[in-house]
Amino acid sequence: MIRLKNVSMSFPLGHARKVVADNLTVEFPQDRCVALLGRNGAGKSTLLRMIAGSILPHSGQIDIDGTVSWPVGFAGSFHADLTGAQNVRFIARVYGVDTKQLIDFVEDFSELGAHFYQPIRSYSSGMRARLAFGASMGIHFDHYLIDEVTSVGDASFRRKSEAVIHDRLKNSGAVMVSHSLGLIASLCNAAAILEDGKLTWYEDVERAIRVHRMMLR
Q1: Counted domains in the chain
Q2: Which GO terms describe its molecular function (predicted)?
Q3: Which residue of 19, 33, 40, 199 is surrounded by the most CB atoms within 10 Å?
């Protein structure tokens, strides 16, 4: 379970402030895959990073029962001077998982070829996203935070990514941000729309998608 209690967060935007979270109180159950919808710039990725602990809210509390991934698709925590393999080895040690198994999984899944053994600073943003996705999916988490990762790569890689997400969600929950509404409809069994720092919960994913589309118009 991921619990947000009276969470508030904003940041300067020109001469005003952009409100990401306005006294939010919500629970994300471990057995649900929740679509996080909202306009571009609403703060969906920032909210994921707060849940992950990489950004602290200005006020309120975030409690997590179980383990939570970093935002899949966000590769900002990689050490640029280390190779992909060295970064994965470090991640395995931090999370206490078998190093060889994780390296083998990520090397095969990411399809980086020889780049897997080159420094991260030589990677494109797409290559970093593949590495981050493979590393997170190679570890069992109780909650996965997924941020637009399946937009990376060709159609074959996207299908492979969606298949591994399906498999992980058999035993874990997730909070997912994606512009692919078809993917959200197939994976998610609840939704929440973020607008002006407020979060509206929907048990009916199709209804949430309809509301989201109307907002975008």
Answers
A1: 1
A2: ABC-type transporter activity; ATP binding; ATP hydrolysis activity
A3: 33
User: What's the N-to-C CA distance of the chain in angstroms?
Assistant: 34
Residues 49, 76 contacting (CB under 8 angstroms): no
59: left (phi over 0), alpha (psi -120 to 50) or beta: beta
Name the DSSP letter for residue 180.
-
pLDDT-above-70 percentage for the chain: 95
Helix (H) or strand (E) run with residue 156 in it: helix 155-168
- Joined together, the tokens standing for residue 156 give 């074959």
**What's the helix, strand, coil split of the chain in %, to 5?**
40, 30, 30
Among residues 146, 214, 211, which one has the least CA distance to residue 177? Answer: 146
Radius of gyration (C-alpha) of the chain in whole angstroms? 17
Question: Of 192, 21, 199, whose CA–CA distance to 209 is shortest?
Answer: 192
Question: Which CA distances in Å does 29 have to 5, 26, 33, 34, 119?
Answer: 14, 10, 8, 9, 38
Query: What whole-number distance in Å separates Cα of residue 124 and Cα of residue 183?
Result: 25
Q: Could you tell me the pLDDT band of residue 76, with boundaries at 50, 70 and 90?
A: low
User: For residue 129, what are the domain limits?
Assistant: 75-140
**Paired tokens of 204:** 């009916």
pLDDT digits (tens, 9 = 90+) for 201-211: 999 999 999 99
Who contacts 94 (Cβ-Cβ below 8 Å, separation ≥6)? none
Token reading at 91 = 């991640």
Helix (H, G, I), strand (E, B) or coil at 27: strand
Residue 94 is assigned to a structural domain of this protein:
yes
Is residue 98 a part of any domain in this protein? Answer: yes
